[in-house]
Amino acid sequence: MERLDKILASTGRWSRREVKELVRAGRVRACGALVKSPEEKFEREGLDLRVDGESVLAEKFTYLMLHKPAGLVSATEDPRQKTVLELLPEHLRKIGLFPAGRLDRDTEGLLLLTNDGALAHELLSPKKHVDKRYFVRVDGRLDGEDVRAFEEGMMLPDGLRCLPAGLELLECPAGDEALVTLREGKYHQIKRMLSARGKNVTYLKRLAMGPLALDPGLGKGEWRPLTADETEGLRGRDGRAGRD
C-alpha cells in the first residue's frame, strides 16, 4: 500500500504540497469515499481515485497506445526534431514514459508508450521473437517470388541474415500493397528486405505488435490508455513485437 500523496504526485499533475491542499479542500475521493488525509494508504491496483470527480489513473505503470503520424521521431527527447512524447499532455511527459519499440520518422502506426521497463524488455528482447505486423506499399508490383523469398528467410546484400517472415499480398489494381509479419526487429528491416527484391517502400504502417492491435478509432497523433484486457494480454501474451 502507498500513501495517497505519493500516488497522486506520481501522475505528474500535482506536487505533494498541492495534493495536501486538494485533500484539505475535500476534492479527492478514493473508492467513493472522501479522503481525509494525504497520508492515507491505498493499493494502487484497481483503485477508483477521483479529483474533482475526474478519474485519475493510479496504477504504478502507465501504458498508452499511440497512433504515430509521420514526421515525428520515436524518442523521449531530440534537440532537432519533434518527438512522439510531445503529442502528450504535460503531466504525462513527467512520469518517465518512453516508446517500447521504435518506428522510423516516416513510418506511421501503433506505438506503445510506457514506463514499465520490464515489460518493454520482454516485448523487445530478440530472444522473444514477438510478432510485428505492418501494412506496406511499394514502388513496383509484388509477386509470388517475393512471398517465397520472405518465407524462406533472406540474406541481404550487406550480409544481414533475416529470419523467415510473412508477406501477404493484398488485392489492389497496382499489386503494390501487402501485409508483412516480422519475428525480429532489425534496423529498417522491411525496407531493406524489399529493397533487396527491387521494390522501394513508399508507405509503411505498423498495425500490431504481439497481441496489441492499433485501435482503428484512433486518428493520427491520437492516443489512449490501454484497456485492462490489452495490458493483461501484453503481460501474459503468447504473442511476439520490436522495430521496423
Outline of the structure:
The protein is of the alpha+beta class and 244 residues long. The chain has helices at 4-9, 16-24, 117-124, 144-152, 189-196, 228-235; strands spanning 2-3, 28-30, 33-34, 41-42, 49-51, 54-56, 63-68, 98-99, 108-114, 132-139, 154-155, 161-162, 166-169, 177-182, 200-209, 212-213, 223-225.
In words, what does this structure look like?
The protein is an alpha+beta fold. It has helices at 4-9, 16-24, 117-124, 144-152, 189-196, 228-235; strands at 2-3, 28-30, 33-34, 41-42, 49-51, 54-56, 63-68, 98-99, 108-114, 132-139, 154-155, 161-162, 166-169, 177-182, 200-209, 212-213, 223-225. The strands form 4 sheets. Strands 7, 8, 9, 10, 13, 14, 15, 16 and 17 form a 9-stranded mixed beta sheet that branches. A 4-stranded antiparallel beta sheet has the order 3-2-5-6, with no helix packed on it. A two-stranded antiparallel sheet has the order 1-4. A hairpin with a 5-residue loop joins strand 11 and strand 12 (161-162). The radius of gyration is 21 Å and the shape is elongated. Residues 238-243 have low confidence and may be disordered.
The percent range for strand residues is: 25-35%
Taking all Cα atoms into account, the compactness measure Rg is 21 Å
> What is the average per-residue confidence, as pLDDT, rounded to a whole number?
92
Characterize the biggest β-sheet.
9 strands, mixed
Shape: elongated
List segments where confidence is low: pLDDT < 50 over at least 5 consecutive residues: 238-243
The helix/strand order is EHHEEEEEEEEHEHEEEEHEEEH
Helix content class: 10-25%
Counting DSSP E segments of at least 2 residues, the number of strands comes to 17
Cα end-to-end separation = 40 Å
**Assembly category:** single chain
**Discrete helix count:** 6
Task: Give the class from helix and strand content and strand pairing.
Answer: alpha+beta
